[in-house]
Amino acid sequence: MKNQANLPAVKNIVLVHGAFADGSGYKSLYQSLTQQGYTVTIVQNPLTSLADDVTATRVALDAQDGPAILAGHSWGGAVITQAGNHPNVAGLVYIAAFQPDNNESALQWFQSMQPAPENGVLPPNEKGIVYYDKARYHAGFCADLSEEDAAFMYASQGAFYAECFVTPITDAAWRNKPTYGIVATDDKSIHPDIQRNMYKRSNTRVTEIKGSHAVYISQPQKVAAVIVEAAQEASL
Fold first, then answer.
1. CATH fold of 4-234, please?
2. Which InterPro entries does the protein's record reference (predicted)?
3. What is the sign of the dihedral through the CA atoms of 207, 213, 216 and 222?
4. Which DSSP category does 132 fall into?
5. Residues 6+ positions from 34 with CB-CB distance below 8 Å
6. 149 CB burial (10 A radius; 0-12, 13-18, 19+)
């Protein structure tokens, strides 16, 4: 690990997970970033509403001892869009993530293109919870991981409430913060062209990485490199 005196000015990273997953998926990304001297906090979203997830993220940001890069995967992109105006946020990184604008919801973007045949997002049940079809989870969410890892991810995911998906953004942080985006080119959960369309609209600096929707697990070093770039440029 780097000597503390050699750390960049922006040394804190806050990671926000998405739907149909939890914070444990960030382990390899955490290891890559901490080995480079960064302090990493992983938010465990309740996935009960946009407001609840934003609150959990702001609690983590409140605890930072200085500026931080805020990164979100998938649904976590909507969360960081709303939470990212926190004064401790020096930049945003979207990892195969939704990036709505004001008065837009994640669902609007999800529906903007025909889903891939492998996509397994099911309609909400009678309790308003959205699940991912177990039979399609591996192919649709994390095809470049082992069956064993996919099974663990499926077992450890949180219950995702449909209210999250339909709630519009009211204060899009990417309008005011340096913003980076990762397109997962083999993504079957959020079509890569949806990612490209969102990022192009917002003038996000884009990096394309070959990987599934779980690119943050299958390609942690490449994802870490984008986050480090954001941290280094925010330090200038």
1. Rossmann fold (3.40.50)
2. AB_hydrolase_1, AB_hydrolase_fold, Sec-Metab_Biosynth_Hydrolase
3. negative
4. B
5. 1, 40
6. middle
pTM for this entry = 0.95
> Which residue in this structure is represented by tokens 């925010």?
234
Question: From CA 179, how far away is CA 230, in angstroms rounded?
Answer: 8
The secondary element (H helix, E strand) that includes residue 8 is none
**How does pLDDT run across 160-217, given as a tens digit for each residue?**
999 999 999 999 999 999 999 999 999 999 999 999 999 999 999 999 999 999 999 9
Within 10 angstroms of residue 43's Cβ, the number of other Cβ atoms is: 24
Q: pLDDT tens digit string along 131-159?
A: 999 999 999 999 999 999 999 999 999 89
Looking at residue 87, its amino acid is P
Query: What phi, psi does 193 have (nearest 5°)?
Result: -70, -25
DSSP per-residue string spanning 146-187? -HHHHHHHHHHPPPEEHHHHHPPBSS-GGGTS-EEEEEETT-
